[in-house]
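Table S2 (continued). Query chain:
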Amino acid sequence: MKRVGLVLFMMAIALMLSGNALAQNVGDNSVFFVTYYANNASGYPDAVVRLINDGDQGTGAAGDLWAAFYVFDDSQELTECCACVVTPDGLLSEDVKTELTANPLTGKIPTRGVIKVVSSSSGDPTNPKPLTGLRGTASHIQGKTYVTETALSDANLGSAEQTLLGQLCYFDGLLSGLPCSCTPEDHDF
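Corresponding output:
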């Protein structure tokens, strides 16, 4: 009986160890993120969206990912879109005021709204190709002197949402011709 107990104990330890090894190799497979921006006006600090490429997709150009940005105002209207490259283990910092909302379709810079980001293998925001690997944070302007920073919220990217974002971005490009701008890595504002 002691022998059976010892064998069961050893099997339990082996299962726990193999489970831990598997858990360590499993990452976050999110490809779609959302956040908000507020107090995007003169006299207030600038909000920033920061993204890193975790490097899991490889190195060099083969491991590059694009942060496909879709910026909406508080009336749920797309105002700008663009895709910014993030190299493996690279850091991309985009200023909300001067890069993500500076060229709105309506000509009126929104003071608050929503930013959606797709982790994409394509640099074309009108046709994002979701691929895991980006992680990010965003700062939030709570008042003239109070700023918070949070992780981007994971969201579900269904095929209808992906198609809609691409179509809205396509029409934004036709109507305005001015996508949001990207600051290259290592050239933070």
